[in-house]
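Predict structure. Input: RxLR effector PexRD54 WY domain-containing protein, 532 residues.
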Amino acid sequence: MSETAAYSTRFLRTIDPDAVEERAPVVDTLKALVTSSEVTPDKLRNWLSEGKSADSVFTRMHLAKTKDMLLKRPQFRSWVQYADDLSKASKKEMLVISTLTAQYGDDALYKLIESAKLDPKIKTLANRLEREQMQYWVAVRKSPDDVFRIYKLDEAKQTVLSTPKFVNWVKHVDDLNAKHPEQPVTTIPTLKKYFNIDDEGLLSLISVGKQSERTKSIASKVEDDLLQIWGNSKKTPDAVLDEMRIDKMNIPLLENSLFTTWAKYVSIFNAKYPNEKRTMIEILTRKFGDQYITHILYKAKSIDTTKTMATQLESAQLTIDHDFSSRNSPPILNACVSYLNVIATESPTKLPILLSNLKTTFDDRLLLQFLEAAKPFRSLERAVVKLETEKIRAIFERREQPKEAFRLLGLDGKGNTILSNPLFKEWMDYVKIFNRENPNKQESWFYPLRIHYGWYGVKNIIKTAMNNPNTEKIGKQVEIAMLKQWLEANHNPSEVFKFLKLGKAGKEIMSSRKFSLWTKYLSDYNLTRKRR
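Output follows.
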């Protein structure tokens, strides 16, 4: 076979495996082309050796005039082969698709390819061009907005996730990020732009998509993009939970697909901002309240699909981490109380075991705080009072130092009404017993008050006690102890005068009880100085 014949034969080879059955028509047409046209195989070979551009050959073969029939023309296959050979020789990629784009434009070429895919005879060729067009768009960094518009995905609205072209579009976004990592893009801005929706609208779109096995995967991809944007903008899990409005939906909390989305975001946020880490149970408790969450978790444990998550959240309610004692977080204690109330109401036989477990879960201080919070619940009152009495007695019987017992009993958190608390009176009696039994380790009952509440706190405690006939006596006792401390510290009467704010008493100063207190201090101060 001559060299010319060989080249002619190669150009007669189709690049479409599905077109074997049309080989005869193609051969006939090419014969006519060779015999009647100036574009002979020799010319194609010469143009190739000269490196003539694919655009130029496209024009010389009069292919630009074929319009919608382009892919059906036998000459087109010859030109594609020419462009492929030229690409190999010149090491220039995507000559076919770049030339076609220059000739037709992105939109028209896309429509041409889509139409050709419907014809079995040229489907394989059309599929190739579709792939190359997608690769070309990535190479020239065609924006997600433009491709979305070309695919007419904006017309799909709520069904967009089930549209086959949506998968292609998402792939385009992914490929852009892989090819151009220095300029990352996501699916979210385009979806918001063309559908005119906010985050809430996107969540609705994602939620619908995740309900179908056919669209679940692609919906999850969009979800990941949304969570990434939230994380980069430091949107808090609390704000996301508010935006989701899960509590407004007629779907149990843990069965709602949006809850799964939110749980995923909490993990992302905590990983991205470890210094601002927050737990799901804390956020849920702040949002919905202890009793609601406890009831929800109790019910969710009986459902297979939510049992694991419910169990984990329930454990988080009852597990106190090492930072908890320093935070002294009321929501968590209240959550524990709410949980026990549900148990006491619905499964009372389990209550004794749970209360027993609390003894090893909580330290003395937290356990007593918990028991105090549980007293208002009638279903728990009897059991917690009994356990509280046992725990207080145990603290006293093991002869803790009074200042430590003060802390363990939670007396440092009783506020201005501490002197009316029966537990404070018990503790004062304990101090007397301790000092009697330990003459060489005497401790002051006033010292913990001053340390934990400060001087102004003690002043407010005294003021509150003086307004209650039942605590007036002990209030005066604290007042005397305060004066004694001042004397021991040798505070100047002028400092005490300022502390008592007598300068603001005006004309009433002489009848003020504080003035009487100050004059007593002045007298004692002067007497002490004389003795020295």
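The longest helix spans residues 446-466.
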